[in-house]
Amino acid sequence: MKKTILLSVAATGIIFAGGDIAPAQPVTPAAAPAACDFWGSIGYRYDFLDDGTNNLGDSVNNKSKAVMVLGVEKALGYGFGFGAELDGIMKFDGSLNKQSESAVLSQAYLTYKAGNTAIKAGRQALPKSVSPWAWTHRSVNAIEKSFNGITIVNTDLKDTTLAAAWVASVASGGTDTKINGSDKGLYMLGAIYKGIANTTLSSSIYYIPSNGNKGKAVSAWAAAESKISSAKVGLQLAYAKADANSVALLSNANGTKATFGAAAYVGGKFDALDAKLTLAYINNGDATLTLGSESAFWGDSLDHSFGKNAVPGTKQKIAKLMLGYKLGKGKLYTEIAADKPDSGLKTAVGARVGYKFKLYGVNAKVEYRYVKNKDFTDRKDQRIRIEGVYKF
User: Fold this and answer.
1) For residues 99 and 92, what is the distance between their CA atoms, to the nearest angstrom?
2) How many CA atoms lie within 13 A of 127 on its CB side?
3) Which residue among 35, 57, 147, 195 is least enclosed by CB atoms within 10 Å?
4) DSSP structural state of residue 181
5) Those residues with Cβ within 8 angstroms of residue 351's Cβ, 6 or more apart along the chain or in another chain
6) What pLDDT was estimated at residue 25?
7) How far is 6 from 275, CA to CA, in rounded Å?
């Protein structure tokens, strides 16, 4: 996607970087769209799966999908512009028989820029950097969830990015779901500050009002990341609380106890090797730490197999070690993780190893993953994933 897209100020500050321990990119001034920007990609993924019922390699359990993404953003003059993105997705079974196909308008928005203030209204992607509770994840470069609403970003204050949003509904697979079942929507305020040397501070707060039949919900997030000599360290706090029977998107919400999460990491790079150790804790609350398809909580691990209050009302202690090593034209990486729940439940453990590389313009990876006691039960998962995405 072109870096000149409006509100790139938010998209470039990747604060919650998951497995990437590179420092957050500097916040840049809000950019107006170019005269006309086009972007797109073609991608394919095949998963060899074992969910404990079928053996790894049995085609009956495998799945794959092909994705094409086309997007455009154009300046209209006088500070106005518009943008759109279309995602075409075809899903197949393990024998490559087509199961479904869809064409989804994942983004369709108007933009306006005046000085250092940028406004985007319509269906859009929300960046994890300033909106960790409700943000947009891409799978094979296709948007899984986008948000219908209005976003405002301002960079007038030195070293500071301020963001505000009102979100009416969540769009996924061509279906719009109203937040809390009403038109009141969700309100968000966020800030990123980089005025301290080698340090990024970020915070955000959310409020979902009651619609009369369903209760309110709130969430607050804060993070600090810094580089000290050759080491990188970070601390993150997350909070979510929902009244009983509130917010259809909060499927875990029973309204009995707020969810609180704390996570910290230390990492560094040593020649071709990089390493990152993350420790996290989640209390026994019942509100989920995400309104999107993925959690921005640093304890989330192994493609969301555990570490994001997957079993509500269960305390969790998470530890994960991530290693990467530049090898040839790509990078060899591995992750080892454990999620210890309350007494009486089984500890979830898992690992993955993979190799990602770029070949003839294609970003590709091959990865093996194993998880034992997923959701703290006897469930075992294995997966071999082959994926490639070409962006243009």
Assistant:
1) 5
2) 26
3) 35
4) G
5) 302, 334, 335, 336, 337, 369, 370
6) 38
7) 34
